[in-house]
Description:
The protein has 119 residues and is mainly alpha-helical.
Amino acid sequence: MRIATADYDAAVASYRQTVLTAMEEVENGITGLASLDRAVTQADASVKSAQDAFDIATMRYKGGVDTYLEMITAQQTLLGNQRQAVQVHGQQFATAVYLVKALGGGWSGNAARLSQTRD
């Protein structure tokens, strides 16, 4: 009887730890997505600003007001901001997958086909 009780207590403790771990993973996923949402907004704004600056620099170069170097510098800034935005978006997607996994979800071939037919 003691062995059965000890086994039961061990199973309960293991179950509690599993539930706590799952709750922690979900909380981390939700918190991560909220932080990344703000980062995505900022990165997208940076890209738009850099694009505007590049467009202006290009027009000024074509008009003979600025040098080619100034236009290329604006383009480098734009490309750097775009690269950073892509990285942040990638982190956001990875965190979303992590959250779905933590919630017990998964990917299946049928779900992928269903989402393609909706588009």
